[in-house]
Amino acid sequence: MKLPKFLLADNSEFPEDLFVVHTEYPRFILNVEEEEVEWLDDLEGDDEDQVAEEATKVVEEAFKWCDAELEKYDDEDEA
């Protein structure tokens, strides 16, 4: 099965929170409201700075994707 790179998720136990699930390496769950990341994979690499830079980049990409998705929902509501 092919999965999208990012998924939106919510949970009734955390009604104020919105989550983005990143399904590719490095997999993680981002709590958008709290701006917290739970890594599901160990981040590997010889160069710690490069690993940190790549992790930051993919988390920023998740935030941008989430903003774009939420904007689509807003556009649908206005139509």
Automatic annotation (TrEMBL):
It comes from the Bacteria. This is Uncharacterized protein. It comes from Elizabethkingia argenteiflava.
